Amino acid sequence: MEEDILHQEVSFFKNIQAYLREFVYGGIDGAVTTFAVVAGAVGANLDPSIIIILGFANLLADGFSMSVGAFLSAKSENENYLKHRNIEYWEVDNLPQTERKEIEDIYKAKGFEGSLLQQVVDVITSDRDRWVDEMMKDELNMILETKSPFKIGLATFLSFILVGFIPLMVYVWDYFKDTTFNVFFWTCLFTGMAFLFIGWLKSFANQTNGLKSILETLALGFLAALVAYFVGDFLESLLNTSA
Predict the structure, then answer these.
(1) How many CB atoms within 10 Å of residue 18?
(2) In this structure, are residues 138 and 106 in contact, taking their beta carbons and an 8 Å threshold?
(3) What is the pLDDT of residues 121-155, one digit of tens each?
(4) What distance in Å separates the CA atoms of residue 174 and residue 169, rounded to the nearest whole number?
(5) Residue 122 DSSP class
(6) In whole angstroms, how far apart are CA 146 and each of 62, 149, 161, 204?
(7) Residue 36: partners with Cβ closer than 8 Å, 6 or more residues away
(8) pTM confidence score
(9) Burial, 204: exposed, middle or buried (Cβ in 10 Å; 0-12, 13-18, 19+)?
(10) CA 15 to chain centre
């Protein structure tokens, strides 16, 4: 019983690790785009209720769009892989000498020669599946994605919604509680903390320097918000002048 529970826990954490990259980039996109919408609306001096409406519209619409895009991209890659794999099976069955020569050329380029080269080629071509796998990997440079396209899309959507909600969190709280503090200041603070966390996760997903990853994510998020803020401020001034 304990072994079964341990096995389930290990499988759970392996699944999380497998989809960490999708979670990270979905979260970054969610936080950046929603924070930019909020900053642009603040720059344009829009009412907080409008900020909430625009923020949630962006959060749900962009989150769904990004997750669908991730799902379709992964699904298309798998379908493309299977299509070329079927072609390789046909060529192995109908053009064996040509395909054998290609295996020989591949391993000759890797430094094999003489009787050793022929032994390697014989071993590979003696098994149809192994032969095709070798062609897919070394000739076409294609590897089948083992992750589920549906789970890729789901991880992207969930992270987009969860992390993307943070720039709206204080505005929602203020709307229901009618607080007196500076809402945009606290939004920037909490969003900055979200960027710190997601940047730290990104360093694990990409196996890169943690500090560099955090600084890159912070810079990206606040640069996008800064641009949105000044665009909103400029357009608000322009429209008021025209009126």
Answers:
(1) 15
(2) yes
(3) 999 999 999 999 999 998 888 888 888 899 999 99
(4) 9
(5) H
(6) 26, 9, 25, 20
(7) 224, 225, 227, 228
(8) 0.81
(9) middle
(10) 15
